[in-house]
Amino acid sequence: WTVLSETPTTFTITVTSEAGENDETVQTTLKFTYREKYPDETPLYEIVSQENLDDNDVMDIIKLLEQQAEENLGMVMIFTLVSAVQEKLNEIVDQIKTRREEEKKQKEREAEEEEKQRFHGTPVTIENFLNWKAKFDAELLEIKRKKMKEEEQAGKNKLSGKQLFEMDHNLDTSDIQFLEE
Prior knowledge:
Mean pLDDT: 84
Pfam families: DFRP_C, RWD
Keywords: Acetylation, Phosphoprotein
GO cellular component, one term: cytoplasm
Region (Disordered): 100-119
Structural class: alpha+beta
Number of domains: 2
Strand order of the largest sheet: 1-2-3-4
CATH superfamily of the largest domain: Ubiquitin Conjugating Enzyme
CATH topology of the largest domain: Ubiquitin Conjugating Enzyme
Distance between the termini: 124 Å
Family: Belongs to the RWDD1/GIR2 family.
Number of strands: 4
């Protein structure tokens, strides 16, 4: 509360909301000027400064002040006006909290949908299964061909024991000759 002038009586009052989530607050400074016939006519009021308020919120506060001033004509109304603004600021903090929670839930839903899409595969039909099977069999056949080719190349350089005995019949009796000696 700061008095700016005596004639006409002009003063400012800073109104702050209760601390919300993460100790966030919204704040506004209201300037009131009494008219000659106050309280039988509304005081002049304006928002001098504001913190953390959107333009829509400022407009809502102005409308609220207008409505409350009209309802309280003939009575001292500054306390009523400031109390109404205080309640409105608390509502705004609650709305900010609710908005953040909704955004968080929306992000979680989007992440969940994205996760579902990641694990969602192609539906299996007879046609696409047969296409896959043909490609798979072709790949297996190619792998077997490569393996056989490698075995053939390795086989030319080195024969197995059975192949050696089948090719050279002298090896059939070589062990017996070795033992006799």
